[in-house]
Amino acid sequence: MRQREALNFRTPQHPSLGSINWGGASPLLARNIPKESLEQKYLRINSIRTRDEIFPANDDFNYLPQTYTPKYEVPRTPSRRHKGILLKFLFPEEENIITLGSNSKRKRWFPRWDPKNRWPQGTGVVPRYDNIPLIDLGGDLISNCDRVKVIHQIVKASQEHGFFQCWAEKPSQYRKTYNSVLPRPSLEVAGKYSVQVRKLSLLLLDLICEGLGLESGYFNGNGLSQVQLMSINHYPPSSDPSLTLGLPKHSDVNLFTILLQAGEVPRLQVLEDGKWPAVDPLPTAFVIPIGYVFQVISNGKLKSVDHGVVTNSKVARTTVGNCIFPSSDSRIEPAKALVDKCHPPLYKSFIFKDFSDTYISEIINGITTERYKIHLSE
Ligand SMILES: O=C(O)CCC(=O)C(=O)O
Ligand SMILES: [Fe+2]
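The line above is the sequence of Fe2OG dioxygenase domain-containing protein; the predicted structure tokens follow.
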């Protein structure tokens, strides 16, 4: 028999994630979702359903018109019955509850999401990504030799793989400073951590700037690296990972992300040569995926990489990502110093906000990034 249970979610998570409702999925999933769904209450139906039942391929499950006001019969719970008049007025629950059921013709709040693009990497056994460059930033980065070597490693990895891993301090110090961030940091720890990570991001920006041959401080100007957004992603275990939202295939919308992974289970999968090998979590290293904005600014010298997350049937996983973004009004275009007669611009110029507003929903739906590109025949 189906047991019904009303849950509150702070971010749009799939009900099969269970009762954990902190942190939530990456803000990626919160983009372009109707605002009201972020405070949405909906029914969780505890029953085993197949993946196709939950996400029927031909179902218009993700269409939610602005004026949508569902009216369903919902069993009353004691807490509702005793709710004060003011709360009832502010939160008219019956109208906020949406059922996720197999036969329902009701509209759902999920973003339009082509089923083919949900788990292109599959959810079974995955190969390990065993040739990820691991770059040591703990050396003497002032002395020319080390600096040149590290810059070369970063640029090469970002060109060939679209991401790299790095150590920022000696491993033992590292554990002490950063381990307290996971699995669930206090606000104070999160604040301290984000300051440390900001320093690391500025160092990486300086090194990449030099590696690309751009004038010093290039990324400090025009708001190019002004915004840092921290997201804590928690992926509870799911008895059937194929029913659970991890993170769909995407490449990051920013310059880069500084990602800390906890736990033993490799679940971050990166697309390389048509395969989706998983990145082993190293507790003392950061994973740095290059974002699309960096690909554009570097005129294609650095490449952003598709990645995604699949959940595990037994083990939870938590990651902390600090994303380095331009400010919303920044103009994004190939750096002038990288463009000349022999190297024409490969990307159009755009304002970051115009791009970021649609980028996530586009890539989630498998729409390619072609429209940002300039084709040489144009
Ligand atoms: O949690 C992860 O491993 C990846 C997170 C991610 O890709 C993102 O937040 O963009
Ligand atoms: Fe990502």
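Note on the example: The chain has a mean pLDDT of 69. Residues 222 and 330 are 6 Å apart (CA to CA).
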